[in-house]
């Protein structure tokens, strides 16, 4: 079962999981690239686009096809606005990966 929420289904959002906009963000820096991460159920989740940029994977969409559905999920701007800071307002969703998903990206 995919953990990426359906934008029209409130059951798939962080707010439905009891996680709100107060979610703490952590930044990791490597060679001038920032990797944003948040904790979900005491587990780190990393912004997929940042991880792909850090790993020089040019096609994030193709790279994410290699990540298991259980290792990725979508975040809404309304649930985690701090992750979207500085991004264009039309960007409303982003994908995050857990540690296993991050390893899937690393080993591509």
Automatic annotation (TrEMBL):
<dbReference type="Pfam" id="PF02498">
    <property type="entry name" value="Bro-N"/>
</dbReference>
<dbReference type="InterPro" id="IPR003497">
    <property type="entry name" value="BRO_N_domain"/>
</dbReference>
<feature type="domain" description="Bro-N">
    <location>
        <begin position="22"/>
        <end position="108"/>
    </location>
</feature>
<protein>
    <submittedName>
        <fullName>Gp54 protein</fullName>
    </submittedName>
</protein>
């Amino acid at each position: 079962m995919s953990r990426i929420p359906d934008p029209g289904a409130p059951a798939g959002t962080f707010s439905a999981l009891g996680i709100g906009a107060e979610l703490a963000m952590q930044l990791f820096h490597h060679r001038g690239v920032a990797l944003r991460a948040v904790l979900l159920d005491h587990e780190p989740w990393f912004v997929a686009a940042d991880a792909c940029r850090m790993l020089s994977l040019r096609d994030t969409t193709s790279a994410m096809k290699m990540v298991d559905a259980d290792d990725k999920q979508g975040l809404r701007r309304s649930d985690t606005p701090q992750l979207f800071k500085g991004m264009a307002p039309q960007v409303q969703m982003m994908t995050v990966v857990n540690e296993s998903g991050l390893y899937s990206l690393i080993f591509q």
